[in-house]
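Incident log, entry 3
Record: SDR family NAD(P)-dependent oxidoreductase (266 residues)
Problem: checksum mismatch between cached and fresh output.
Input:
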Amino acid sequence: MSKKLALITGASSGIGAETAKQLAKKGYRCLLLARNRARLETVAGDIREAGGKADVYPVDLADDRAVQRTADTIIEEAGPPDLIVNNAGVGRWIPFLETSTEEAVKMMAVPYLASVYLTRALLPAMVQRGSGRLAFVASPGAYLTWPNASTYLAARHAVKGFAEALRSELKPDGIGVTLIVLGTVESPYWEHNPGSRENVPATNKQLLPDLSLSEAAKAIVDGVEAGKDRVVKPALYRAIFFMSAIAPGLVASQLRKASKKARKKA
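Fresh output:
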């Protein structure tokens, strides 16, 4: 595993940073992508101090030309990745009428278009080699819908559709695709997206507990190493997704009630 190369987006903090650290402990050389160089250097420093290998590539993932330039540099300096973890994401959970069109565009640009730009830039080299894995980090919003998070949910549905379509398309080329669906994670996301927490549907925390950063990253790392098509954490969401498929009206009704309950508590 010491020669494996992993690229992680949104690696300057939160899930991305923790995933990079856990991959480095597994022997991967990690390529860290995000906009903030200083934060990336901090994460890379932590990885190196622990005996791992990491390189930083500051880039605005919403800029397709910048992504292409960065990808070209990565191919030249490190070669094609064995693993790409599309983790970067932005966007507040707020009502649609409180969402500006500019904010809606940004939410679609990252994570969805960012994953399109990066995958398109690096995939040819992976296909030519005949191996590799793409991972896409999403939320239950990739399968479900609830009030007051419309543009956020639309972007996650797009990520799911992209991942599932790529899995079918790339299987003959030896490229695997893992979709990771994580429930509520205690991360800096909530600080960076004010107004979002109160729009998270209320759930039974014993059945659907919040995930720590370590638990979320472990789910990602274990899933990609096992070559899984899908990873769902907490696992109970699988049953909820199944119920939504066979009784969408019932599940949607319950989510609306849970959302209303959450806002009353906020």
